[in-house]
């Protein structure tokens, strides 16, 4: 959702059942940048380096709280900014990244002071934290680890998954990841003969979306927060590619 969102403040209104709003400098900086209506690409890049790719809101953090009674495990946590805001709300968060900030081997967050302790580790740690909600914020596009992470969480008995990113064909995850989430049912490789998309024929959805929270995002981007619950594994029949129809010359 492009446009200004309620800025962070200290305290909460009387009688509110929500967690108190706490300091969220990324949201405040985003609101200031949008208000200028200028070229935001350089500003966005600077904010990614300092905070991360996605802009959390109180509604988004509250949604994570509701489905995380045993805490959160975050994979690909980057600077730990989302983990930091969740910890402010009293949620126990264990965060991992293959190259935690300020590692110089992290192309996005080299030299950045982390907001929350981020341990070195990849998606293979997921199985040790099945009782926690798995959090993935902007998982890498066209890499296999996001799909493997949510599969391992399901196999270990995990109940909830929170994904922050774009839908099928977007800048986060790949087609297998989206198919496991139940968001993609058409195999782009087989139906459209795409050589850049993995085949998802036979991939069964492991997760079912139960809630979506709109997030503020930069013009041209469409990332939101999605909450999923596990579903029973169902076998999906592999489809055969359809023969191509003869091409008609329009000339």
| Spatial order of strands in the largest sheet | 3-2-1-4-5-7-6
The overall pLDDT, averaged over residues, is 88
Spatial shape: globular
How much of the polypeptide forms β-strand, as a percent range? 5-15%
Low-confidence stretches: 9-17, 236-251
SSE pattern, N- to C-terminal: HHHEHEEEHEHHEE
For the termini, the CA-CA separation is 43 Å
Number of helices: 7
Please outline the major beta sheet. 7 strands, mixed
Q: Residue share in helices?
A: 10-25%
Write down the Rg. 19 Å
Short description:
With 251 residues, the chain is α/β, with parallel strands linked by helices. It has 7 helices and 7 strands.
Characterization of the model:
With about 250 residues, the protein is α/β, with parallel strands linked by helices. About 25% of the residues lie in helices and about 15% in strands. Strands 3-2-1-4-5-7-6 form a 7-stranded mixed beta sheet, with helices on both faces. The longest helix has 12 residues, at about 25-35. The radius of gyration is 19 Å and the shape is globular. The termini are far apart. The relative contact order is 0.14.
């Amino acid at each position: 959702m492009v446009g200004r969102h309620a800025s962070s403040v200290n305290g909460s209104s009387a009688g509110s059942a929500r967690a108190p709003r706490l300091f969220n400098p990324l949201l405040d900086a985003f609101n200031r940048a949008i208000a200028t209506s200028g070229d935001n690409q350089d500003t966005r890049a600077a904010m990614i380096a300092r905070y991360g790719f996605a802009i959390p809101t109180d509604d988004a953090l509250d949604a994570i709280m509701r489905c995380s009674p045993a805490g959160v495990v975050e994979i690909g946590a980057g600077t730990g900014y989302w983990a930091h805001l969740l910890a402010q709300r009293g949620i126990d968060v264990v965060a991992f990244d293959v190259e935690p900030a300020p590692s110089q081997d992290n192309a996005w967050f080299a030299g950045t002071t982390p907001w929350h302790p981020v341990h070195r580790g990849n998606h293979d740690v997921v199985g040790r934290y099945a009782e926690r909600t798995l959090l993935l914020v902007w998982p890498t596009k066209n890499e296999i680890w996001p799909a493997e992470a949510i599969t391992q969480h399901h196999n270990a008995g995990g109940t909830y998954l929170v994904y922050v990113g774009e839908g099928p064909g977007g800048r986060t995850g790949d087609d297998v990841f989206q198919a496991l989430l139940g968001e993609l049912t058409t195999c782009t490789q087989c139906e459209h003969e795409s050589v850049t998309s993995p085949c998802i024929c036979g991939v069964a959805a492991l997760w079912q979306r139960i809630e979506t929270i709109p997030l503020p995002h930069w013009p041209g981007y469409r990332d939101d927060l999605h909450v999923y619950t596990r579903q029973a594994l169902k076998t999906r029949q592999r489809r055969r590619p359809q023969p191509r129809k003869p091409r008609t010359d329009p000339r």
